[in-house]
Amino acid sequence: MGDMANHSIAYSGVKNSLADANHEGEFGVSVENLRALMDLRSVEALHRIQECFGDVQGLCTRLKTSPIEGLSGNPVDIEKRQLAFGKNFIPPKKPKTFLQLVWEALQDVTLIILEVAAIVSLGLSFYHPPGGDNEFCGKASGGVEDEGEAEAGWIEGVAILVSVICVVFVTAFNDWSKEKQFRGLQSRIEQEQKFTVIRGGQIIQIPVAEIVVGDIAQIKYGDLLPADGVLIQGNDLKIDESSLTGESDHVKKTLDRDPLVLSGTHVMEGSGRVVVTAVGVNSQTGIIFTLLGSGGEEEDEKKEKEKKDKKNKQDGVDNRNKAKPQDGAAMEMQPLKSEDGDEAKEKKKANLPKKEKSVLQGKLTKLAVQIGKAGLVMSAITVIILVLYFVIDTFWVQNLPWLPECTPIYIQYFVKFFIIGVTVLVVAVPEGLPLAVTISLAYSVKKMMKDNNLVRHLDACETMGNATAICSDKTGTLTMNRMTVVQAFIGEKHYRKIPQPDSIPEKTLNLLITGISVNCAYTSKILPPEKEGGLPRHVGNKTECALLGFVTDLKRDYQAVRNEIPEETLYKVYTFNSVRKSMSTILKNPDGSFRMFSKGASEIVLKKCSKVLNATGEAKVFRPRDRDDMIKKVIEPMASEGLRTICIAYRDFNVTELEPDWDNENDIVTNLTCLTVVGIEDPVRLEVPDAIRKCQRAGITVRMVTGDNINTARAIAVKCGILHPGDDFLCIEGKEFNRRIRNEKGEIEQERIDKIWPKLRVLARSSPTDKHTLVKGIIDSTVTEQRQVVAVTGDGTNDGPALKKADVGFAMGIAGTDVAKEASDIILTDDNFSSIVKAVMWGRNVYDSISKFLQFQLTVNVVAVIVAFTGACITQDSPLKAVQMLWVNLIMDTFASLALATEPPTESLLLRRPYGRNKPLISRTMMKNILGHGVYQLIVVFTLLFAGEKIFDIDSGRNVPLHAPPSEHYTIVFNTFVMMQLFNEINARKIHGERNVFEGMFNNLIFCTIVFGTFLIQIIIVQLGGKPFSCTPLNIDLWLWCIVFGMGSLLWGQLIATIPTSRLKFLKEAGHGTQKEEIPEEELAEDVEEIDHAERELRRGQILWFRGLNRIQTQMDVVNAFQSGSSFQGALRRQPSIASQHHDVTNISTPTHVVFSATTASTTVGCECVS
After folding, report:
1. pLDDT on residue 1139
2. According to the UniProt entry, where is the signal peptide (predicted)?
3. Can you tell me the mean pLDDT for 1065-1070?
4. Cα–Cα distance between 215 and 87 in angstroms, integer?
5. Which of 44, 157, 424, 846 could staple 462 via S-S, CB 3.0–4.6 A?
């Protein structure tokens, strides 16, 4: 390994001579130096720092920054740094251009068929066959009457093309705006991320994008690191680097062993200060994204470079240096590609919103495929019947010979039949479905922002509507997270109010003040209120802020103590984590002795106490009996009032003893002397009891999962309304929960969980693992007929697994750590439980909007297909022409999806039970409405079609010649059909059989605009549409008749509503979820992109093929990177973690696997040869 290091340094020497010319003048170190440093690990990195810079202090000097004061924050200096070392920004993948989206929309099969039909129709309309007016061509050809009409034959073809263009542009525009919204959402999430840095000696929070090389950043438990850096000072710092290396163990970071921290990794324990050394595309995460091709420009540059490389092999060294940034990265990060660190996954999701298939989308795709198949069959039958009828009539009944000069005329007939068939297909295929889902979700997501829900994954919004259980945290979600100390037990006396400082012995008071000031994270502090007369602002951990507030109430200043004992002089810190449930800080005294302060959950810290300070401030023995006494008389009364109890204690280590083994925590944090037990109040949010009542009424069970004492938890649960006096519900601690769900071998059994969870309402003193176990247990349970859909709230780093496991994970926007936000689906920007209830309302609304749209669309589909089919078979011509059908299609697809998908939610949505995962999209009530309205519309249309000319005393439009002018008769049929759709759109607003279909209609501006807009356009089409729309102007009487027929559907709707659905046993439901979903698919394919089964049937081959290609492409990148020369250490060092690639590989067909392992083998060999 030694000569490897030398090799690498020698190599970087050659390399830097070229690069340093740019920046050496400004800073004492270049981007390449720093990048090479961050490529190293642990001891090698230490050696490199010592060799090049002396120590971290030397590195800071070179970067012109102060480890204590940080950067000055001078804008000129910041700009220089951004020029020299880059900005902390990774360019996203280029979005698709509008033209690309148009091209994609054109790929639609139905549209292609239409285009072909239109072009053929156009071509034939311009071709006038010789002898076309030959009487031998059959009587049907009487269609080519006067010249003027024959000239107008092209109009139909053009009209079809125009309407196709409309559909394409609408689809493309929708996709484009969806993409834009999604990017806006992403950038908003990114902008909201702030990070703590020191500038000009002040600790400030700045947006992640403004961090520059040389900044001194403060990192703490729960942070997602935004840049690479080198540790200056750390307390008990442990980092989860699995997103980069795939190694799941937490890595301990210390100045003398492993001082490098990398972007994209999570701080799991402790705190510290780092100097930032790489940002943006030069950081480890940036290198990966460059490799994954997220920065499009870099990909192009890379290709250019590779071309140049081949040409200029002679000046090899120079070219190697040019290729360095990419290829080093390519090789370094290979394991990552396969592991796909969380971030990479997130970014992928960001770029491919279409990948996320939810339960609803699964049901819809399946339904659309079924309807499409039915439409295809109907249209094929239509064409076959028309052709057969024509052939039999012309050549059999009239017994005419096939004459060559008649061929073009016959072809014109066949094209007309083909167009009619395509029209049936166009109307049958519900291409508006995906549009409706998109509009509904996008609209809801936009509106949910106003309700403090920042939706990160679109489908979470709709899943929330099916939620049956919510597992909520207590602190900050149900309570205000505005903590204050209200009671204290000091010197053997229980104070119900904050005591006066002079009533406490001086010695006890000093110990207490120092203990709290030093043993709270230095990032927690109390700032003056923002507004005059407001409450002081709490920054950092809220419990610690309560203790600091207690110091202020005792008329002392914690900041003075901290100035006296700065953070870097703390000897050792055992930071708070969910296992310890306590925090301890050790100070070294001037005489060489040590003093340790501890604070934590009262029953846990008291167990470690062997003494307690009495009323005079002297320590006296504290026996287990005294402890039980204290728990009964002090802690339980506090807890039963809903107070969180915290114990503060200390211990002295004498000079004479050998220095203790600080790593042996159990021997250190014991034999403590209890200073005080305080009761901290965190009042319940005012709106929470009402929100929980709404949830319970809506059939959603709310459970509280908290780390607090069971008495505190129970008291808060009663205040919130989760528990009611006299309820037969469980309220247990984590220990008891674990005891009940595990068998003799200590394994968790689902049957045991099933006995507990239905009655469980409060889980106290729970660890994050308990939370995950509970969520998994409820989701996997088969006790209830419907699979439970669980939402979970979380704020801590350790809540990540539970948030990921839940159907919908809510992270706290204010108190949440970056890790929790990363794992969540929705971020609550106000940390408030009542916002979750709003999310439920929006989720249910999405579901109902889609159902409303389906009810409307399927009625139109059924009627239009039957009319076109029977009309064609009986009269050899569809009563509704191709262009008219396309207009109907536009109304019922694009416009209706806009009108019905943007209905705002109402409180009434919370009065019914959740639908559940396998509830069909089309209920029996909806099926009743669809068939009922279908019958009415068919009766009206057929009556007008076959008796309309007698009723209105007009010329019949049936059996007209090929290019006859539009008839009044068929115009009435078309107009009535559209009017019935318009009024039925109002009917479709209700799907549960409600009578008042107008309720709330005028609150929805979009709906009213679309209905009136469609009506106006219909008037224009009928009165002025002429030949292209096959319409002729109607007089006012005929118009009124059309409107009366249309309004009839409102009255008919009332009639349908009176028929009880329960009587109609023959009605079937439709749009069930895929049954296989009932196997917890999350387990089967946790990391495979979810593709629902309907689509899977269509795409299984394709997917494997694309994945294979994608894999091979990545391998080629790596191989190319190798050929162009690079830092081999990285690959060798990362080699072990290639084992972690099996996660990904198992999901891919065998051939790809072979390619993969072959490459891996070759890379290893490559490295060994060189070293």
Report:
1. 36
2. none
3. 72
4. 12
5. 846
